Amino acid sequence: MQTRPDAGTGAPVIAKISGDKLHPTNAGRLCTKGATHAELMAATDGRLSTALVRPARGDEPVPTPVDDAVAEAANRLRAIVDRHGPDAVALYVSGQMSIEAQYLATKLAKGYLRTVHIESNSRLCMASAGTGFKQSLGSDGPPGSYADFDTTDLFFVIGSNMADCHPILYLRMADRLKAGAQLIVVDPRRTTTAERADLYLAIKPGTDLALLNGILALLVENGCIDADFINEHTQGWEVMPEFLADYPPARVAALTGLAEADIRRAAAMIAEAGNWMSCWTMGLNQSTHGTWNTNALCNLHLATGAICRPGSGPMSLTGQPNAMGGREMGYMGPGLPGQRAVLNAEDRDFVEQAWGLAPGTIRTDVGPGTIAMFEQMAAGDIKACWIICTNPVASVANRSTVIEGLQAAELVITQDTYRDTATNAYADVVLPATLWSEADAVMVNSDRTLTLLQQSTRPPGAARPDWQLICDVAAALGFGAAFDFASSAEVFDEIRRFWNPKSGYDLRGASYDRLRQAPVQWPVAPEGADRNPIRYLNDGVSQTLHTHADGTVPRLAFATPSRRAVFHPRPHIDPAEMPDDDYPLVLNTGRLQHQWHTMTKTGRVAALNKLNPGPFVEINPADAAGVTDGQHVEVSSRRGRVVLPAVVTERVLPGTVWVPFHWNDTQGENLTVNALTNDAVDPDSLQPEFKACAVLLRPVGPPVAPPAAQPSRPADAGTGPLILWASQTGNAEEFAARVAEQLGAPLRSMDDCRLDDLRPGREIVLVTSTFGDGGPPDNGADFWARLGAPEAPSLDGVRYAVLGIGDRAYQNFCGHARSLDVRLTDLGAAKIIDRAEVEAWDEAPMTGWANTLAGVLGGKPAAPVPGRAAAPFTRNRPVLAPLVRNTLLTPPGAAKEVRQFGFDISAHVAAHGITYAAGDSLGVLPRNSDSAVRTWLAATGLDAAASVVVDGAPTSLGRALTDSYDICRVTPGLLEFVAAHCGDTAAAAFLRGPRAEVDRWLRNRNGLDIVAQFPVRAAAEQWQQALVRLTPRQYSISSSPQVSPHEVQLTVSVVRYQDGRRGGVASTFLADLPEGTPVPVFLQQSPHFRPPADPGAPMIMVGPGTGIAPFRAFLQERRALGHTGRNWLFFGGQHRAHNFYYRDDLQHMVADGLLSHLDLAFSRDQAERTYVQHKMADHGAQIWRWLDDGAHLYVCGDAARMAKDVDDTLTAIVAEHGRMSVRAAHSFKRTLVADKRYVRDVY
Asked: What is its EC number (predicted)?
């Protein structure tokens, strides 16, 4: 994080947020909520800068000095305790508080006020996991670490949508999946995580226990358990086989709604995995048998010995930043600091001595849990409630009980950073607290990592840290001596005294000084290592050394009395409330990726609100009964109602609906889904059952007409072959046209194809490239979505052939072609010939595949398409064009080097009549520099004069490396070749290890560094197999032939690094050429990336950086042709002074009216980074009006980040200003693509 002085006050404010690449948890990655935190911290509207006191119920709260409000709160609390006893007071605290504040809240409640009523919002999320861990392993918390993600062979994700709710962990998991690990996802909703799964189990809600027992039963039946581990480290196994016999696959299938084969496959995958780990969260925890779910998962790990070793173990995923720390501090139920409990006499004695209390001060009775606490408040038994850093009016199940409790209480104190929360509306006293950057604080995450958040900005007004406000109130209550801390560091030093050798909880080696250097992971003994990923190691360091009766010392010692982990037979039971005739559907709730909890913070970030703009209810089509997307429906239960727009989708199972829980009273009426949820609780953990309650749907708004799902043209009436293409850059389209001519068949983009065209007796030929990580190109995305939908028709009787065109440098080479092949087969179609996968430059196999196909289908004789190979200015016959313009567009000292290149094609225009069009690309055939070739030959020990054969012709190795092979590109094939031949096992393990680690090492390195760092001695012929061919680089043309018919112009960012010793092959090749040097170039036509044909059509262009190139051409073209349509350009870069390319041209276009709007986003010129998508969002209403008027939208530039962010922003704009659901917005975009009104040139 970087700060800057505020222009008005000089106080530090956040200027930039970036991930800490050295942090062991995220390695620098940020989710959208982290990435937008500077915007959040700048949103000061509604921040509490002073206390508020309500003179009387019904009056408006009055700003009050904090010390006066503290005195008011303490005086009223003292009066209630004196009059009614300590249990008339309750504290309700949060997993978002610092560990210091959590500790002090427990100390005040259990040591000094002596009330049993201290509860936390962790009761709503992690209580079942914590209770289950205690029952099975002896103490709370996962036994492993996030480091297990990097070495496991199998992820078993159950009841967790990690992609949305734990996106950074999901990315870490995705890295491991790319390295070969497998993924099982168990979820009643087809989430983004489920879409990545090798095995997705769409389980019936509330039947997880049956599945877990059934999997373990199969492991036992097949002898796939670890008997040695069971004998050495566990107890209770003797009753399990008989218990598990009640869960044969047939019964489990009937209970869960899963196929027997899938249950067996899940068991087999676990059995075959060398290491496996389970990940779960609310889907298992928020249940009336949530504790048993954790027990059952632990049973699976214990039975297979997959626990307390790298890559294996149960990993419960905590959602709040310090819910783990709060559980360690004992802030709910029987807990005491250091994983102790009031139920244990030794624990009470230890804590009483630590706090200087008389023996017997700490009570042995335990509070009834969150739900019962608010019930007792509503009944009048609890008179006062102090709520810190949480919003129970929105977040507690059956929230009406909370409202009734707060209304009945004599005193409600809240402590928050913002004024306008659903809960603050019921407060008598509001105390102003700080946010994370405004005070020092320690947080503890799911895998026990302690991070010190260091103060970097000032609190607003009189706001104080939570720990300090607790101390202030405690002092005003008369307990000042025990709460006399000058800093949070002093509080933390007191916490370090609570080492627990029974459970291994150990912070003795942690301190603020040490945490300022790096995070640490407990157990951390004095002088212990920073990272301690495995718990329960029987080493006598942080926990008492255990020796068996026979004198042997086991490797592990769990925190149970026997020091053995415990098996618990846990039978399947139904949820507390099942659907019936009155309420026939099951409601499930959850989170969205870009909002968090009750939106107290994220609801203030415009970028996040655009990504997740509003609530909705997902309904399966079988249950929709005429309800359409966007239509408002009432969802009611026996407890309450909400009214939400519908999303009709197959993501949810029939008989179930799903609603995100973020929205509440602050955003509007009838939005709080916890008005519906069931407050029945797990008898052990006291956690309520949010995940299953019976509801009824009733439409309350008019139907919304759905957009067309398929192209509007009639079905094709032909019977002969149909050629379909999908292409991002034009290569696949161009070759598909050649195939269509050869076969005499119609040609169509995939998105223009109706599924009705794929009729029995028809031959379909599909030619496609791949975009992104195995996905379809833009003009094939809608076809792929329709083909992959559950309602896609049977293709029995259809015959097909698939050709994939790609680049072997990418990991998922021709991935979309493979996906098409598999899906067509699954739908019943039969192959004409086998799929081929070729590189775009490799003409011979492409032509061979087309000839084979023509021979089968009776097309033209098996020969290259006549005349095509001879056409000049094409890929197969490039022309030599002198480089006549090499102009530096960036000033000296700029971080980027951007140049305008011009190529003189006048001789070829005269000789062959060639031309180009605005929107086309120019292909450049580069060559490797002499210095790069020398470096490569020196590293490999080969002779430049050695003879090799390239494309059937002999040449020297030096010439081949210069002209034919890409020696600088790092590909999966190169990494594998070097790993296999370098002779260094450690180097081979690194190169074959997690791709994310290799990618980090490769930053600012290329293939020359690979061969230098990992020497390989191999024959030249072997290297020819390992290297990819040097392929043309294509650049968007930035001139119009109407203005510059004889000079083709490009706008190119020149890539240089390592002080210029390394660089991009093509960009540096061009940049370093003397003027007048002939360069081999060819035209890559892009017939679908053209300015609007209608002279009056509006045009919106989004092209930051060198993405401006085609739009300069578009604007030149429209001016030259006299087109009258309005034009709007979104452009930007890092700095206005350095990256405002073609500034004079663009400003003249604005001045003369050609550009109606020019919106600029220079990201680094202000504290908060601003990109083109932010500018689009700012003008969302106007963009929607332009689209509604028929505007064409074009995007050019980076595919990985910019294009995706722009696409997401467009979806949000369409949804918000077009007043439609997200699903309908996606359909609207697909219609734009089909109509050629949303076109992208991204790379």
From this structure: 1.8.1.2
**Got the DSSP string for 970-1014?**
--HHHHHHHHHHS--HHHHHHHTS-HHHHHHHHTT--HHHHHHHS
Length of the chain: 1243
C-alpha distances in angstroms, 520 versus 444, 454, 505, 559, 650?
A: 10, 15, 13, 22, 44
CA–CA dist 1217, 18 (Å, integer): 32
Helix (H) or strand (E) holding 1054: strand 1047-1054
The CA-based diameter of the chain, rounded to the nearest angstrom, is 104
**Closest to 38 (Cα-Cα) out of 64, 57, 12:** 12
- Mean pLDDT over 164-186 rounds to 92
The whole-angstrom separation of Cα 687 and Cα 296 is: 17
**Alpha-carbon radius of gyration of the chain:** 33
Q: Which pLDDT band holds residue 532 (cuts at 50, 70, 90)?
A: very high
User: Each residue of 13-38: pLDDT tens digit?
Assistant: 776 777 787 899 888 888 878 878 78
Asked whether 816 and 769 are in contact (CB, 8 A), the reply is yes
Name which of 491, 495, 494 is nearest 440 in CA terms.
491
CB 616 within 8 A of CB 642: no
Q: Quick check: helix, strand or coil at residue 766?
A: strand
DSSP reduced 3-state for 80? helix
Domains in the chain with CATH codes: 2-35 (no CATH), 40-121+323-485 (3.40.50.740), 128-165+176-316 (3.40.228.10), 585-699 (2.40.40.20), 722-857 (3.40.50.360), 879-926+1034-1084 (2.40.30.10), 930-1029 (1.20.990.10), 1099-1242 (3.40.50.80)
pLDDT above 70 (res 710): no
Residue 1 confidence class, pLDDT cut points 50, 70, 90: low
Alpha carbons 770 and 775: distance in angstroms, whole number: 6
- Given 3-state DSSP classes, what are the helix, strand and coil percentages for the chain, each rounded to the nearest 5? 35, 20, 45
Q: What is the mean pLDDT of residues 248-273?
A: 96
Which is nearest to 309 in space by CA: 196, 143, 451, 453? 143
Neighbours of 69 (CB within 10 A): 25
Is residue 873 exposed (0-12), middle (13-18) or buried (19+ Cβ within 10 Å)?
buried
For 1158-1164, what is the mean pLDDT?
A: 95
Is it the case that residue 2 has pLDDT exceeding 70?
A: no
List, for residues 150-168, the tens digit of each pLDDT value.
999 999 999 999 989 998 8
What is the rounded CA–CA span in Å between residue 748 and residue 958?
Answer: 44
| Other CB atoms within 10 Å distance of the CB of residue 315 | 28
Residue type, 329: M
φ/ψ of 1155, rounded to 5, equals -95, 115
How many Cα neighbours within 13 Å face the side chain of 703?
9
pLDDT, position 866: 39
SS3 557: coil
> Binning pLDDT at 50, 70 and 90, where does residue 709 land?
very low
pTM of structure:
0.63
User: What whole-number distance in Å separates Cα of residue 1080 and Cα of residue 1062?
Assistant: 23
Q: Which of 925, 837, 815 is nearest to 873 (CA)?
A: 925
Average pLDDT of the chain to the nearest whole number: 91
Residue 855 main-chain phi, psi, to 5 deg: -65, -35
Contact 709, 751 (CB under 8 A): no
Which residue is listed with tokens 């004198």?
551
C-alpha span between 840 and 942 (Å, rounded): 29
Average pLDDT over residues 387-407: 96
Question: Sign of the C-alpha dihedral, residues 413, 418, 422, 425?
Answer: positive
pLDDT band at 602 (very low <50, low <70, confident <90, very high): confident
SS3 1214: helix
The secondary structure of residue 286, as a DSSP letter, is: S
